[in-house]
């Protein structure tokens, strides 16, 4: 582990973070909302820390970063950015303590969207802008991480990260990291701009449209309003946001291929088809469940069902209704959706559709083997056989995901939180969703969770966002040896 | 699929079932409780149905039963026995409808212990005896199924069932099915007699002692009292029952080895050690959680914590306290324990400790592979390498278990049941535990579940009891072909 290289790259990330604080600074200047000094101070501190790290460390030859160092950079880099991104909230007095600031910041950069702000509308405009903007930055990071860095590390000998993206990606995009990143970010920015235009076309102000696009595309879910998207109570906005949440839940390399003219790619890709059919199917079931029990008209039931289902399945976490008041069926579906998540290679969290598909096919194969003991059944995704070591990685991933869910739920409950809230909060944070169940439902917030619980949950967010392995491996002593 | 052979064996099972109804008949005669005619009628019907099936079918040469027919016999046999075992409850007017009678009977034979009796003490003594006795019979069936039949089928080419018992069993016991069965039943009966003596020694009447031994040893959990074991409010009884629940949760072949003089076998066997340490560890955590919040003294907290934890971990389902009134930590632990279950080869249900140990080692191996990509790490249990196909079977089993839990919870919720109850009831029934959460907690019963829900849940009980594959495979069209 060559710490000087790791420090150098994290230093660069912090300098970059300090630099982009110029946007909330400009925002504060325009709206004259009193957060100017807080942001300037944060900017200075972040910039100095970044430069300091950069200069005391050595510039690595990027070719020689080994996989282990790659993992350390990803995990520690995300943590450092979460820590320094919290400064504006802390200096701007938006939160009562530093823990809360870090929680909000990590919740942003991991695109989770769980909030400790009890009165969002009481926070200054520039800080709310920062809160939305860091989700958008987090989304950029995730796309590149899951589509370029993790498979890249995989090629370097680590079969596991190759397994993370069993989608037709690495061979389709230009292989070099920086070019892939540029293409993906271009697509990401393009769709974000489209959403801003669509929202403004419906009459939403530029500031709100921008902030919501910044949190839709990374499936982040922070809103500038206390009541989340329900604040606008506008079917057109609901519809637009549902549309863009769905787009954000699709593998971004498919968007790229669509732009290249492969018009049927969403349907041809089996994961994407699974994801779209799941969104549609669950929406219809929940619509059926809500019609007559909660809403009097089918169209209203469909509107709220589609929004909430897409919001949870894509792991965005916006709300236009309190699903905790819905009937049992809808609640069970939403609880289960918290584990499913969106497509691999999208900005969504959770287990990812691809892994779940592989798991189901794996289970079916076991049944099939019981009937035909001598046959060698294979698991296929998009007509390609999933190699055995990738299967193992995926089943291992799902196992660790659930084991960690269990362990963290027990730990959170040990802090005096009730069962439903513990299970819901941990499921929500590991899945990078935002709202949970119990006292952290869609109309509640995370402010009342004890301090130790907040640190546990923000660790869960990092865990889920960085695909479990990257974070949990830091706890294995073997990792640090030699 | 040679139906005549299957019919013949099920016929023999029914004749046997009709024959053992002589015990409740005798009980009814002694107590003169008015159920004599109902039991006679049931006995006659079961006997006739059994003889009918036996004579219209052909006697198979047991050597030529193929694995597929073996599976069909296990699944259909258990179902048939559940159906005919319901007759005494139905004819004896202990239940309002046939569905309830079948629910109670299947709950008995699968050793689940979920009840639809709202007033247990209002049911005649002979019917309550039958209710306890069928759990004891179910336990006998399970021991032989999991330690002799499933591995036996496995040897015949089905790797899967071999995977079910990765314990040092088949090679240690005499290989022939009938002899293995005799030895195991002898051990089972011996421990049951011991429990009766211990309970009577503390002052419990013979009838109650017998009925409770009949439901402790198969980890069944039916009690003759409305308040379950809490009725006696006696620390000595609690202690004795905890001890025997633990014994019932241990692989019965280990008991046999203990009787043969291998005194340290409980500690040497890694699954048993895991199981015992888990019982102890969780009891201590829950004691700590309850002390000061629910109970004022450490000893009282320990008494109730140990009873409830052991009851759920061993999947017995007795209650001396309502854990739904306990703090969040204890509730989360109990909810998770519903999935864990006892040892493979015991009478307990759930996923089984051995499978969970394998899963954890599998996950750790995946992490290890990430650090040392070139190493070939192996999963070991009791110093023996678990073969790759067994690993796959186990991971597949856990995957199917959880997928079915999810599907059945959604289906139950679709019948208008709230989320907590749906999740709790399905977890409890698939795990063969008994009580769940919400409106089916330890002080509630299953009477209020709609009829379709009861059929779903009793299917879940069979599913869990027959190790998932045996039941779910009947739904795969491939299974019936050719
Ligand atoms: K989110
Ligand atoms: K039970």
UniProtKB/TrEMBL annotation, chains A, B:
Alphabetical GO CC annotations of the entry are: plasma membrane
Q: What is its main location?
A: membrane
- What is one Pfam family matched by this protein? TrkH
The residues that hold K(+) are: 111-112, 220, 315-316, 432
Task: Mark the transmembrane ranges.
Answer: 12-31, 37-57, 69-91, 133-153, 183-207, 235-254, 274-294, 332-351, 398-417, 456-476
Q: Where in or outside the cell?
A: Cell inner membrane
InterPro entries the UniProt entry points to: Cat_transpt, TrkH
User: Keyword annotations for this protein?
Assistant: Cell inner membrane, Cell membrane, Ion transport, Membrane, Metal-binding, Potassium, Potassium transport, Transmembrane, Transmembrane helix, Transport
PANTHER family of this UniProt entry? TRK SYSTEM POTASSIUM UPTAKE PROTEIN TRKG-RELATED
Q: Which family does it belong to?
A: Belongs to the TrkH potassium transport family.
Mind telling me what this protein is named?
Answer: Trk system potassium uptake protein TrkH
Q: Which organism is it from?
A: Desulfocicer vacuolatum DSM 3385
